């Protein structure tokens, strides 16, 4: 291990060439930041206790325990700081950490796919940032190296160093100071508009998220109160008032008031949340190589994405947002977390929920295409059988349930006679949804991109670079076989791992796949008239020999 | 090789050239039988412990038994008809499933790893599975029930071919 650099090296205004060549420490202020995270929630507790102090020893004991926790945290994060070192050599990024179980991780710099900077409030006050270095490996924590935290200026420097296309392998050539000033500005592709907050407020997931957050916050608070017996009188008063209102006001008023409170509270919460998420949003292109998203009011986030890792974009329109004419734009890229496994989609967002036209235009800009994503030939619609499948999928269960209930009502007195009308009542909206799901199905080409569109709850349009397709997965259920349909999925290293064209007409789907990546599927296709598929070798040994021969001598 | 020349319509997937080992039928049968036995045991246990003599459970047991026998006898042979594999100089191609079918294609140039796996039952039967992964989280191709030597040879050959072709489009 090399000697550690003297402190002046980090504080010097002009860093020497190859600024991360020697082993580096994290910023000492990280110790303060992580301790503050633990200490901050204690203040209200201590405050409440101080106010409701009855001179008992309980207050003292609790204070002592809390102090102990603070000291432990301080020591723990100091140890973490003390044992964590990182460096960037000409070839690799290396990270040593851990005091009890020591770990050393070394990744080639060419494997670095993304460098993201996050600064929660405390970090921002201290001028430091958390750096996450993504390598695009599948397993969540394995693929990500985290530096918590280094000074924001150095984090910027590190990001630029790691994401720069490697011109040469010597550290001198890897840090030309001219490029830094040029990249500082970047080309702005989009910036936040105030009206967009309304769109993000509409996103239903945000509403739910807000309520989950409020709920958990309330339950935490009530736990605190209950633990301290500090609010007995308050709760008594509250429940008294509530019960008097409950008994004196008409029921409908109470219900309406509750609903209005929930809705308004949810909307305000979602608005606040989306402002926090998207405040100061900017999408910029730095040089030719990198896209950059910066946003956040309290916690700032800066996500970088190399152009060559970008395999396409996805327009997602959740139902509420779609009704308002809005859409979300996300990146389909390698090295970002996978949507299905993580559920955390915020680091692949290219744009806040915004008007569909804007999303289409910015999407085209990101992919360096003229016009908007909607330009080009209309997508090919899927056969009517696909509609029948969707209709029967929603109607058959409703019909079965209705007939079951009708029989039950006929047999017994308990089931009311009108009960079979209830599942039938769900049929009209279900038909509308099925029709919508069918109408949204489509696939086609836009130059070098495969386009697929599907979904009704969330309508998704995916543009996937055809070069990024690394295989096909074609599936057919028995019902699809009867209907002459199949589902064609293009597998890719980016995004979800695969993108499907659902319920395509069999021949169209296959020739579509073949036209997307010419030559990959064609050896395994045959004309319908030629019936050669049964020319299968029955003996495995001989077939194996032949396979070998074919591979060796094409 | 058949050249479809990008013609619209009249095209379909042909079956891959090679079947898996015939003993794979036995392997699938064992798996199916164990599944059915567990299910029947669970239902039978319920019927036995049921506080009142329950005719419905007994009928369910009989129906499940009949279905189970059908499953154990039909499914493996059906699978044997469907499961096939093939390699060309440029791609690996597999077909799998029985009621629902799935075909997978991966180009040689995008293959990352080639693994062979042998469970205890497969080892007893002298069978092997070969799994071919690409950079996609969704794209592994698995060929189950290969003759052991065939599997080893296939894995070796694929590894050699993929080492020669760099780049995996990540």
What does this structure look like?
The complex is a heterodimer of chains A (554) and B (170). Chain A has 3 domains: 179 residues, no CATH class; 182 residues, no CATH class; 141 residues, no CATH class. The N terminus and C terminus of chain A are likely disordered. The longest helix of chain A is centred in the middle third of the chain and has 28 residues. Chain A has 21 helices and 21 strands. In chain A, helix 2 packs antiparallel against helix 4, helix 10 crosses helix 12 and helix 16 packs antiparallel against helix 18. Helix content of chain A is 47%, strand content 24%. Chain A has 554 residues and is α+β, with helices and mostly antiparallel strands. In chain A, strand 19 and strand 20 form a beta hairpin. In chain A, the strands form 4 sheets. Chain A has a 7-stranded antiparallel β-sheet with strand order 7-6-5-11-10-9-8, sandwiched between helices. A 6-stranded antiparallel β-sheet of chain A has the order 14-13-12-17-16-15. Chain B has 170 residues and is of the alpha+beta class. Chain B has 2 domains: 57 residues; 82 residues, FACT complex subunit Spt16p/Cdc68p (PH-domain like, Roll). Chain B contains 4 helices and 8 strands. Chain B has a 4-stranded antiparallel β-sheet with strand order 2-3-4-5. In chain B, a hairpin with a 3-residue loop joins strand 3 and strand 4. In chain B, helix 1 packs antiparallel against helix 2. The N terminus of chain B is likely disordered. Classes of the chains: A alpha+beta (554), B alpha+beta (170). At the A-B interface, strand 18, strand 19, helix 20, strand 21 and helix 21 of A face strand 1, strand 2, strand 3, strand 4 and strand 5 of B. Chain B: InterPro entries: YdbS-like_PH (IPR005182). Chain B: Keywords: Membrane, Transmembrane, Transmembrane helix. Chain B: This is YdbS-like PH domain-containing protein.
In short, what is this structure?
Chain A: Pfam families: bPH_2. Chain A: Residues 81-161, 445-512 form the YdbS-like PH domain. The complex is a heterodimer of chains A (554) and B (170). Chain A is of the alpha+beta class.
């Amino acid at each position: 291990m090399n000697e550690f650099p003297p402190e002046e090296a980090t504080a010097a205004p002009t860093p020497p060439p190859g600024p991360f060549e020697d082993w580096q420490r994290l910023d000492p202020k990280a110790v303060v930041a992580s301790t503050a995270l633990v200490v901050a929630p204690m203040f209200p507790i201590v405050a409440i206790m101080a106010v409701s102090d009855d001179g008992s020893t309980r207050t003292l004991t609790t204070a002592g325990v809390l102090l102990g926790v603070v000291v432990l945290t301080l020591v723990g994060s100091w140890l973490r700081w003390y044992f964590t070192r990182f460096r960037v050599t000409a070839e690799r990024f290396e990270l040593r950490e851990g005091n009890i179980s020591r770990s050393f991780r070394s990744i080639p710099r060419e494997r670095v796919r993304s460098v993201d900077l996050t600064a929660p409030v405390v970090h921002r006050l201290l001028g430091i940032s958390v750096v996450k270095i993504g390598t695009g490996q599948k397993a969540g924590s394995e693929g990500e190296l985290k530096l918590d935290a280094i000074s924001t200026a150095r984090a910027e420097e590190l990001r630029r160093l790691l994401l720069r296309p490697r011109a040469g392998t010597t550290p001198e050539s890897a840090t030309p100071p001219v490029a830094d000033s040029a990249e500082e500005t970047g080309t702005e592709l989009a910036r936040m508009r105030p009206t967009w907050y309304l769109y993000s407020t509409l996103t239903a997931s945000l509403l739910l998220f807000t309520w989950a957050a409020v709920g958990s916050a309330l339950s935490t608070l009530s736990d605190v109160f209950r633990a301290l017996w500090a609010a007995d009188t308050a709760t008594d008063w509250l429940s008294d008032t509530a019960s008097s209102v409950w008994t004196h006001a008409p029921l409908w008023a109470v219900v309406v008031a509750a609903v209005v409170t929930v809705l308004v509270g949810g909307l305000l919460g979602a608005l606040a949340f989306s402002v926090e998420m998207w405040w100061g949003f900017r999408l910029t292109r730095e040089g030719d190589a990198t896209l950059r998203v910066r946003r956040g009011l309290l916690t700032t986030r800066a996500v970088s994405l190399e152009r060559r890792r970008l395999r396409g974009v996805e327009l997602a329109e959740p139902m509420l947002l779609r009704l308002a004419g809005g859409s979300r734009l996300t990146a389909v890229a390698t090295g970002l977390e996978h949507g299905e496994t993580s559920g955390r989609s915020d680091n692949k967002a290219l744009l806040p929920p915004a008007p569909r036209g804007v999303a289409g235009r910015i999407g085209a800009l990101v992919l360096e295409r003229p016009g908007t994503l909607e330009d080009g030939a209309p997508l090919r619609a899927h056969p009517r059988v696909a509609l029948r499948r969707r209709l029967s999928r929603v109607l058959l269960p409703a019909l079965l349930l209705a007939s079951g209930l009708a029989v039950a009502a006929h047999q017994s007195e308990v089931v009311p006679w009108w009960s079979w009308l209830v599942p039938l009542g769900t049929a009209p909206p279900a038909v509308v949804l099925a029709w919508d799901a069918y109408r949204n199905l489509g696939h086609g080409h836009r130059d070098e991109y495969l386009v697929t569109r599907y979904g009704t709850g969330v309508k998704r349009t995916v543009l996937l670079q055809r070069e990024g397709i690394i295989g096909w997965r074609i599936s057919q259920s028995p019902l699809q076989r009867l209907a002459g349909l199949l589902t064609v999925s293009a597998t890719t290293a980016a995004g979800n791992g695969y993108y499907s064209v659902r319920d395509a007409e069999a021949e169209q789907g296959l020739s579509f796949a073949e036209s997307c990546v010419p030559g990959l599927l064609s050896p395994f296709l045959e004309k319908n008239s030629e019936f050669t598929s049964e020319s299968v070798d029955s003996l495995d040994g001989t077939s194996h020999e032949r396979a070998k021969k074919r591979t060796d001598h094409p | 090789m058949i050249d479809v020349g990008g013609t619209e319509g009249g095209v379909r997937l042909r079956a891959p050239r090679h079947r898996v080992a015939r003993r794979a039928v036995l392997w699938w049968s064992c798996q199916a039988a164990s599944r059915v036995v567990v299910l029947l045991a669970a239902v039978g246990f319920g019927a036995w412990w049921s506080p009142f003599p329950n005719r419905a459970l007994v009928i369910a047991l009989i129906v499940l038994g009949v279905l189970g026998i059908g499953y154990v006898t039909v499914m493996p042979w059906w699978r044997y008809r469907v499961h096939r594999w093939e390699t060309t100089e440029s791609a690996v191609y597999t077909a799998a499933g029985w009621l629902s079918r799935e075909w997978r294609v991966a180009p040689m140039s995008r293959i990352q790893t080639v693994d062979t796996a042998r469970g205890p039952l497969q080892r007893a039967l002298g069978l092997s599975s070969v799994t071919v992964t690409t950079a996609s989280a969704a794209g592994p191709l698995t060929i189950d029930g290969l003759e052991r030597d065939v599997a080893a040879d296939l894995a070796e050959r694929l590894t050699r071919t993929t080492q020669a072709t760099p780049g995996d489009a990540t």
